[in-house]
Design goal:
two-stranded antiparallel sheet, 36% helix
């Protein structure tokens, strides 16, 4: 039974260790992202919210809209990333959509975003309100990517101009944005592809017409280690109290009067034998 109890205790400790590490990591990462978001919104350095490594810092679309007493700044950038396929470096480009709420009632935390070209061409993304800060962005539910990719709006080798973005929640239209995104706004991809074809490497600095953004690194390792150490100290103390202390009292917090008498009798018998 003692072995079983120790095994159960060990399993509980292992699960707890994973939870402590995971929760600590997520908590402090979230705090850091929230702090960065608040600072970026205050400084209005909106290009910091672009998730792709490469982009043109001049938005292809920028407009302040007032809809139902709510004011929004809509920003769309031409952005791209580089991927490797069949030992080749390929530039994948598209549009990065951002919307900043300047005033009014915030939209829900998550909602559907329908990117439309005419009446027959539509791609559905998931929109989100980042930490309820009034900063809205989108991602594709299948790829998890944030780009409105060029290839998704190309049909028979012809790019379908994007003319409307509709926000919906449970079938209810939250707002509709009239927009005009055309193929001639997509320039970053060709510049990147030309660079990698010429140099056979990805750029890690700005090149002509393309701004490079270094990956955001959030290091919470020291905080995770600290909390894990605290947890392990508590585990050791718990082990001593549960198993080592009980060994001295035959599984009870305190020896009963009857047990004390039995122990005393055994000790007396031992002395008499001597």
């Amino acid at each position: 039974m003692k072995i079983v109890n120790r095994i159960i205790y060990g399993l509980i400790v292992a699960v707890g260790l994973m939870l402590v590490a995971t929760i600590t990591d997520e908590y402090y990462r979230s705090r850091e992202v929230l702090a960065i978001t608040e600072e970026t919104l205050a400084n209005e350095t909106y290009t910091d919210f672009i998730s792709s490594a490469y982009f043109n810092e001049t938005p292809v679309f920028e407009e302040t809209l007032t809809i139902d007493d709510n004011e929004y700044l809509v920003l769309v950038y031409n952005a791209a990333h580089i991927t490797e396929a069949n030992d080749e470096l390929l530039a994948i480009e598209g549009f990065q959509f951002l919307m900043v709420q300047k005033s009014g009632t915030h939209l829900p935390e998550f909602f559907d975003v329908k990117i439309q070209s005419g009446e027959d061409f539509e791609v559905i993304y998931t929109g989100f309100n980042l930490y309820n800060q009034g900063l809205y962005a989108i991602f594709h539910p299948d790829t998890q990517g944030s780009l409105i990719m060029r290839r998704q709006f190309t049909e028979d080798d012809v790019f379908q101009d994007i003319d409307q973005i509709v926000f919906e929640k449970d079938g209810e239209v939250l707002l509709t944005l009239d927009i005009d995104l055309t193929e001639d706004m997509l320039t970053v991809g060709a510049l990147l592809q030309s660079y990698v074809d010429t140099n056979n490497e990805v750029p890690t600095v700005d090149i002509e017409g393309v701004t490079y953004k270094e990956p955001l690194v959030i290091d919470v390792q020291n905080l995770v280690i600290r909390n894990v150490i605290i947890y392990l100290v508590v585990v050791v103390i718990g082990y001593v109290l549960i198993f080592m202390r009980k060994k001295k009292t035959l599984g009870k917090d305190q020896a009963t009067e009857g047990l004390k008498q039995d122990i005393e009798r055994l000790q007396n018998d031992k002395k008499s034998d001597e």
